[in-house]
Design a protein that fits this description.
It is built from 10 helices and 10 strands. It is an alpha/beta fold. Helix 3 packs across helix 4 and helix 3 runs parallel beside helix 6.
Length: 270
């Protein structure tokens, strides 16, 4: 079954994704438990928390990337346009087209800049003008002016920040609705990081963005909503991640409801 873009109820039209009692297992080991959150359309939602709390694991649930891990199992519901993306009839490839992903380390294909952008649309049977699509997505990723005269050059010759923006353009080329970013600036220098942050602000006019970040200043700068995840500090060996608190970013950073959130934001642990 292909996901229907027109199935949203009016009262839910502001929501891009909803999770309901999501649990993630690796073999018999529970990694993330009882995640319930509503992700607003055309907002940036940040996932923060200490290492090992399941932020990236949760992020990969949103486009079924965990399916690629043989031992991984997801229970509960993740609703996209009111359909559970984990229903058996749903095509996981279509899910990943609608919900794109940018990884922590830039991973351009060892092909030309042009081919990096055109590869996904070709596979998906794109029938439009490929030159226009390549230019449009490179402009969206604030990269066109830097590469327009060398589109046939190998993408591996770009700088790290340029490679990451190319990967963002590559994700946009399949015309997704949601963009997942797993620490997209952690491997970049401060100038390249600022460009990625500015780009995210521009992209949220048309896309819903969920970003994992260890940088709390970055989360405070770029996100509208923040989910703080942690692990049971009294039983650290179990490493079961859970969501402590989820709300508007300003509230999470200035007036959180939970003491654990305040302790993390204040740097008392992490």
């Amino acid at each position: 079954m292909v996901i229907n873009m027109a199935t949203m109820d009016l009262q839910d039209e502001e929501l891009a994704l909803r999770t309901r009692n999501v649990n993630v297992y690796y073999s018999d080991n529970l990694a993330v438990r009882d995640i319930n959150m509503d992700v607003k359309r055309q907002h940036i939602t940040a996932l923060i928390g200490p290492s090992g709390c399941g932020k990236s694991t949760l992020l990969r649930c949103f486009n079924r990337m965990n399916d690629l891990i043989p031992t991984a199992r997801v229970e509960g519901q993740i609703l996209y346009n009111e359909e559970n993306i984990y229903d058996r009839e749903v095509d996981e490839v279509e899910v990943r087209r609608r919900i794109g992903m940018v990884f922590q380390k830039p991973n351009p294909f060892p092909k030309s800049i042009y081919e990096n952008i055109s590869f996904g649309p070709k596979i998906n049977g794109y029938k439009g003008n490929m030159d226009e699509l390549v230019e449009r997505t490179l402009r969206q990723a604030a990269l066109w002016d830097e590469v327009k005269d060398r589109l046939q050059d190998n993408a591996l010759g770009l700088s790290g920040g340029q490679q990451q923006r190319l990967c963002i353009a590559r994700a946009l080329a399949t015309e997704p609705d949601v963009l997942l970013m797993d620490e997209p600036a952690s491997a970049l220098d401060p100038i390249a990081t600022l460009k990625i942050e500015e780009l995210m602000q521009e992209l949220k006019e048309n896309y819903t963005i969920i970003v994992v970040t260890h940088n709390m200043q970055q989360a405070a700068r770029v996100s509208d909503m923040t989910a703080f995840m942690s692990v049971d500090r009294e039983n650290p060996d179990e490493r079961i991640g859970y969501m402590v608190e989820y709300g508007p970013t300003e509230q999470i950073f200035t007036a959180p409801n939970k003491q654990e959130t305040e302790d993390y934001v204040a740097g008392r642990f992490g």
